[in-house]
UniProtKB/TrEMBL annotation:
Protein name: Sigma 54-interacting transcriptional regulator
Domain called Sigma-54 factor interaction: residue spans: 270-499
Species in which this protein is naturally found: Crassaminicella indica
Coiled-coil parts of chain: 238-265
Domain CBS: 13-69, 77-132
UniProt-listed InterPro entries: AAA+_ATPase (IPR003593), AAA_lid_NorR (IPR058031), CBS_dom (IPR000644), HTH_Fis (IPR002197), PAS (IPR000014), PAS_4 (IPR013656), PrdR-like (IPR048106), Sigma_54_int (IPR002078)
Annotated signal sequence range: none
Domain PAS: 133-184
Amino acid sequence: MYNYDKILAKDVMCKRYITLKENYQLKHAIKLLLKNNMKEVFVTDEKNKLKGIITLTDISRLMKQKFSESLILKECMIDNLITIKKDIALLACRNIMRKNKIGILPVVEHEYLIGVIRKQEIMDFFYMGLEKAGIKLNHVINCLHEAVCVIDENGRVVIWNKSAEKLYNVPAVKILGRPLGEFFPDAMDVKVFRTKEPVENVYHSPKENCHIVINSAPIFLDGKFLGVVSTDRDVSELRKLTNELQKANDTVEFLKREVERFSNDGFGKVIGKNPKLLEKIELAKQVAKTKVNILITGESGTGKEVFARAIHECSSQKGLFVPINCSAIPNELFESELFGYEQGAFTGANRKGKMGLFEMANNGTIFLDEIGDMPLFMQAKLLRVLQDKVVRRVGGEKYNNINVRVISATNKNLKKMVELGSFREDLYYRLDVVQIKLPPLRERGGDIVLLMDYFLKELSMQNNKDVRYIDPEVVKILQNYNWKGNIRELKNTMEYLVVLCKGNKITTDLIPNYILEEIKKNKRREGGSLDLNKAIVEFEKDMIKEALKMAKGKKAKAAKLLNIPRATLYYKIDQYEIDCQ
């Protein structure tokens, strides 16, 4: 915070001003003011010593009195100027302005103008601290959970924040500028307005069915009464929050006991029997009991986080599993999120400080997902933490020891990134002690059926649906689809099918068109045949089926869509044995 008693005029004076010699005409002053968008011109003699001032207000008055623009400045300037020295305190400048009811003070040295203190300069400086921190007073007040009300010396409401609107169901546009007593005759602010005595933590009911705790105080400045400010909080809301917090704590404890009771094998959630996957599970189980850092690679959606959680649950780590998505954290928040911050470390921070995710994961596992998206400056800081096994919070001086197992994951080629200079080589070798590369879903064959069955049961329960069966043709189609999004895409597709299913069985008509089209393209590629006649037959079949679907089975309408005679359509339907139902 600034010590305003020690701020001098020279520290904040503005050096942007206009000067003209006293023998110049008024029209020159007008031209300069309009060109530079200024409000005053300082008049000097031939030796540049300050002699007077003329403002836009003065010029307007002269024009109304029909003075000529050729008038000499010396004849129309204000020459009884109040000036100050550069070493006068800023607070004294403000008092001089208020006492003399002026908005500008020239700063002079040996009769020469060296700067200007305007009313705006003083206002800007006093609010500079807030502006630099990016804090707007109205924004701060509206972000407060407490209802804030301020009334002026006439009892009229001048501040009424969003929490006050919500608590009292009175919009700001309706109450601002009006006497508070018109809306709440028994309000505590009205009482304080009369008595000029503060009240603290008083239970109060300003209107029916509204129970609050209120703090209200009169505002005095230089002994002059300016109004009343109050903050109100709903007591019933606090009680509700306390009860909900207790319930949440009880639930967490219950779930923790249940997890410890049933999760003796962390890899129980990894669905699959494919040999490639089983090989990775065995490798993961082997290294889980150690403390080496692990890098999990693979395409997006292959289940890297599920695998990391399973490794943690199979390990001897007693602490938490803390996942971090490196691609979702803004660069400027990386350090404070990972390492925490101390009280007052930066504007907007929790006033009590905050524990970082590394400290939270102490004696446990930290999972750095999308590690390839971590910026270079944070890679250097992370490397230091891995080497020294200590963290220091932002704004702090104390180093805290940590015991953390690091599991990283990426779908990028980190080695290539090292070659390109976008990932640190020393960090790469720190993280990649053991690498587990997960196979994509398209290489896991029969696992697709196992995952479909698992998701069917899970998603049916989540969406309150009674879907029990999947048509064998659906299974066949989904097995032949090239799952670019891997398990994540399969789960999303299954949820789509479950939600749209009207009965208890998923049928082929529910399969998204993009999947069917992709399979058709793959069949054409895999066929490798150059037989044009066969290709034309397949194309005609698809076109006729699509036309019949659009015509809802009406052959005459389908023939029109295909632009062929109806007899030709009947012939081709029989020829290709197309089912019209």
